[in-house]
Structure formats: C-alpha cells, structure tokens
Amino acid sequence: MRPDVSLRVRRYAPLAAVLVIAALARYWAIDFCVPFDQCRPDEDATQSVVIRVFRRTYNPLFFDWPSLFMYAVTLSLVPYFKFGWWMGWFRGEGHFIEYAGFATGNVIIHARLVSATAGLFSVWLIYRIALRLFDRTTALVAALFLGLAYLHARDSHFGVPDVTLVMFVLLALLCALRFAESGTTRDLVFAAAAAGFATSTKYNGALSVLPLVWIVTTGARPRAQGPRPPAFPERLRQLAIAGVVMVAAFVLTTPYSVLDWERFSGALRGISEHLATGHGVMLGRGWVSHFSLSLWYGLGWPLLLSGILGLVFYVWQVPRRGIVLALFPVTYYLGVGSGFTVFARYILPVVPFLCLGAAFAVVTVAGWAARRLSQPARTPLIAAVLAAVVIAPSAWSILQFNRLLAKTDSRLIAGDWILANFPNGATVNTVGRMSTRPQLFVGHQGRSPRHPVMDIYDQAAPPDPDVIVVATTLVAPGSPGSDATDEVRAKVATYTPVLVIDAFDETSTRLVYDWQDEFYIPLAGFGDVLRPGPKLTIYRKPRGP
To answer: What is the spatial distance between Cα 107 and Cα 76, in angstroms, rounded to a whole number?
Structure first.
C-alpha cells in the first residue's frame, strides 16, 4: 500500500467505523410492523400524502407539517416504481399504489429509509461542524455521540419528518460556519437555503437561521483568520439576501402554503393551539418534562449533563464562537418548552448540539488528564475511554430498542389469529385507541371487505360481534389500564377469552414511556417489555347450543 493511501486510510477509518455503527443503529428492523400504519403515530399521515402526490395531486391538503419530507419520499418511490414496472412487478400506477402502499407498507418503509438516511447523514454533518469549531478528535467523538444517541437513532426508524429536520438544521449551521470563514455570497445563499429547507420540513426549523443572522449582524467568526466584518450597509444587504433565499426555499418546497393559504394558515393556528394546550396526559411544561423525560432517558444522564456543561464552558471560554453554537438550541428549547405538548421527538433538534458540547467536554477533560500525566500524545486514547463511558447508557438503550423492535408486534399477532380463525369473515369490535387495533387492513383502501373492523369510537358497534379485542396499555405513568367502558366489560363477561397477547409487565415500576405519544416501546425499562404493541385480549362470541 502506498504511503499516501495508507495515511488516508488511517485518517478516515475511525470516521468510517462510526458511520457503520450509526447505520446499524438506524437501519436495523427498519421494516418493523408493516403493513400496519398505526405502529408509529403519524406514519399514516405520511403515507396518505405520499400516495396522493404520487397520483399527481400535488396539494397535500395536510399542513400540520410542511411538504418537503413527503415530496422527498414520493420522489424516492419513482425509481422503485419504474424499475418494478419494467420488471413486470406492477401493471400500472394503481396496482403499484395498492401493492406498495396499503398491501405491503412499502410507502412507509420508503419514508423510514429517507428518515434513517437523513439521520446517518446528520452524523457526517456533525463531524464536519466539529472539525470547523474544534479538532479531529473532538469531531470523531461528536459523531460517535450522535451516532449512538438513543433518541436520534430511535426516531431515525420512523417515517416522519423529525430526523430530516435535524439534518437540515445541521446543514444550515455548517453552511453558516462556512460563510463566517469565507464571507462569500455563495455560502450565504447556501446557509439561507438550508434554513428554508429546514422550515419546509417542520415549521420550527425556521430557528435554524439564527446562527447565520448572528454571524451577519455581529461579524462573529469561528476562526481568527476569517474575513473582517463588513460595513453596516453590506450587512443589511446580506440579511436581505438571506431572508429572500430562505423564504424562496420554503415556498418552492411547500408551494401550497401560498396556493392554498386558507388551509395552510388554519393549520398553523391549530398547531399553535395544540402545542400550548397539551396532548393526552398532562406532564407539565416542556422546560421540565423534556429535561427530566425526553433527554434524561433519550440520551442517558452522562451524555446529557456533559453536553450541557460542555456548551456552557465553550460559551464561557470563547463567547463569540460559543454563541454561534448555543444560540439555536437555547432558543429552540425555550420555545418548544413553553407549551404542554411534550412529545420526545419535539426536542430532537437540540440533541446534536448536546453531542457537540459533550464531545468538547470529554476532549477537554482528556487533554487535562494527559497533561497531568505528562503524556499529551495520549489525549485521543483517554478521550476514547471517556467517550465510551459517557455514551454507554445510550448505546445500551439502542441495542435493547432494536432487539424489541425486531420482534413481532402484538397487533400483527392478533390480526393473524383473527384472519386464520375466521376465514369467511367476521365482525370485530376493537376496544381502545386507533393505534391499539389488530392489523386487519389487508386490502385496497386499507380495509378487507371480508373482515370489516367495527370500532366503538368510529361507528356503532354491532350488538353481538364475533370477536371483541380489548387493549391494555400504560396510559399514564404507573397506571396500566384499558379504554373499556363498564358496558364493554359487561359484554366481554359473556364472551370466551381465547387469546392473551402479553406485551409488558403491568406491575413494573421501571417503565418510562414517551407518555403523550402512542408508541409502545419505552424510553427506559426495556427488560419489562416482551414485544412491541399493547397487551391484547381476544374474546370470542360463545357458539350456540
């Protein structure tokens, strides 16, 4: 091997190893629970919009999220459809939609693959950001921390926009740092466009423009050799360019925000109200809940605390550069924490910044320890040992999460049992939230004509259904229970219980869930979970004499 090639291999092998580990954490069990579209809340919304757009009806009619993520998933389906059509797998678009959407869940899988790939790319982006702010050792540690950050790896499995938002937030920061060093209009445009794409992924991505605004208005530079700050009129011109480019990037990728303004503005009002008033179980304001629940269990306390300490120390040590790094996560946390809707995924954009702070803290401590030992060359080795200790709880959570995710979901088991025991059709009364229903949606339009599902919340239940399925979940911290009413309990008392699908230990005091989200793998307490999904008890109508 030539010396230059050998040097290049040694230089990039650690990053390649980190990326491989991050990929395994994100792509493992990516096909969980398909074709059921309720296993991960909101994936059904992604699927319905993507199929609508694939049929060339480009107005999503759904603005709880902007459109960029759904358009990207639709675009990812095109080569798959073209190749399948050429191979004879699909007779046409209608057949493809039935096959790839409702019949097999491939639309959801494509959405998850987009999300997982965005998550993996984010690991590379954080490496590039840390290279500009710190050094190669810190960059590798930061990439490792994000690669094995449980909350980020967990949500990279889901076909929703949150992890893609994180990618664009990091891209906006990287481009802003490039602009701070170069001062060129090209880098300014790239940074503003990335912030526009972040906003077009989720609306709170608009805050990703703050580092760029700070750099333009103050002349902050990440390195001393950056260009001299321009005069005030030039800064105004740069801010105007950034604003125009950011808005243009948003409108181009969410065009119906303008073309369907009434529906779009109504959705924004609804989102604001939802964030302020809460969702399901009241857990208090996000300032407390996100720290004590989402981040404490989603990262593990060593990574969380070292991340906070590292950010604070960096701002204290180099204020102008530190503010560039801390401005977005602090502002975002204050904003998202002001409401009572505290899904863990809402705090995801803060995670990479905590990873950067934790990497800075670990390498700083490692450097201090190496100097005390009079062996400064040992700094990377000491940093690697400290990093392993810091990331261990989060890495363990990823391993346990993926192990459970790969198991068959209770809702699939229940659906298979019903379909096998009632081959000629049945009336089924599901008692519980939509996300607890057995998987019986096996046909076009999501329903099987032979196996109609009668849900007591959607329509009047049949007086004597063939099957009643009752779900039991942890609906609030420490309180297992079902949605069964007294009337339902009286009814099932006359039925025969034929199958109990256990999913978790109802007596556990260790289980910690993302309480407001209807996702049935916990943030902590994995040892008390048997499989994904709720506990389901199937009752059968007694046979006649």
So the answer is: 9
Q: What is the pLDDT of residues 8-35, one digit of tens each?
A: 777 788 999 999 999 999 999 999 988 8
Q: What is the pTM (predicted TM-score) of this model? A: 0.92
Angle, alpha carbons 328-333-335 (nearest 5°) = 95
DSSP 224-280: TTSPPPPPHHHHHHHHHHHHHHHHHHHHHHSTHHHHTHHHHHHHHHHHHHHHHH--S
Q: Which residue has the tokens 């399901």?
A: 280
Burial of 43 (0-12, 13-18, 19+ CB in 10 A): buried
Distances (CA, A) of 368 to 139, 321, 372, 381, 382: 18, 22, 6, 13, 10
Kindly report, residue by residue over 391-442, the tens digit of the pLDDT. 999 999 999 999 999 999 999 999 889 888 887 777 888 887 778 888 875 4
Q: Please list the alpha-helical segments (H only) found in 406-478.
A: 410-421
The pLDDT tens digits for 276-316 are: 777 777 778 889 999 999 999 999 999 999 999 999 999 99
Which residue is it, tokens 């906070």? 308
Q: Are 363 and 137 in contact (CB under 8 A)?
A: yes
pLDDT level of residue 458 (50, 70, 90 thresholds): very low
Q: Which of 463, 472, 522, 518 is nearest to 491 (CA)?
A: 463
**Own/partner long-range contacts of 457-465 (Cβ < 8 Å, ≥24 apart):** 457/433, 461/429, 462/427, 462/429, 464/541, 465/426, 465/427, 465/428, 465/429, 465/541
Residue at 344: amino acid letter: A
Which neighbouring-strand residues pair with 428?
A: 453, 467
